[in-house]
Amino acid sequence: MSPSPYLEGARESALKLALTLHADAVSPEHLVCVLLGDEFSALYELVEHAFADPETLYQDALALAPGILVVGSGATSPFSVRAVRAAKGAIQLAESAGLEKVTPACVLKAACDELNTEALDALKEAGCDPAAVALEGSQGVLQASSHLFQPFNDEARRALTSASRMAARSKRSALTPADLVTGALSEDAGLPRSFGADASSAAALMRPHADDTTPPEERALLDDGDLQKLWSDLPEGAGSLDVLGHILSAPEEELAQVFLRQKVTAALLERSRETFVDP
Question: Among 275, 252, 279, 250, which residue's Cα sits nearest to residue 47?
Fold first, then answer.
């Protein structure tokens, strides 16, 4: 099968998105996100024709995509490169302290370690001191897990959700260490006292330096089984509407439900195939 040049380009973009999301493979969800993110794709135009919102569909597909993300009712936020390092650093801090779970204090200290120099200097000049934050909590053996956030306790997970909301409000494409700092401060009432600032004050101090533009590490990623099947089932010269047709052929699957909930149906697709075309 030889897809259209447009779809070949979208596949390359899906690989880049998967790398940005720190995924282990490229999936149909990554490809769909790319197609929904291009206002000139036939899929995007069909969605608008159905009076559905491409951005809502994008967020719903992103929430299903493999990778390191915080999925919430308000927003789905990928992690920046340094935010992933901070999350892993929080686990290491909890292990070193003999804690059974990762706490917001672990998240705060690890996030400060990953802040850029300007953001950290702004905090320290205002009297904030990450070293003054103590790591306290239930003692025990932190259980290893294949899921990055499994070792986090409830408060630390809520800190991730708060960080995601901060990233969304600031219109950042990814959650950063600065967002993790404010998330941790907002979910543990004792942290602002020892750290030297509350969440809103810390956010204001770091705001000019809160972004993280560190590029993801280049890795060789393969298509997952679902994307391999999608690709093998597509007809010659396939475009974005053929991708949608394949997805809707299994209406019970979650990715198909993303479209069906917005009335983007197989019947609509068949009526519109000649109307909308990819670039």
Answer: 275
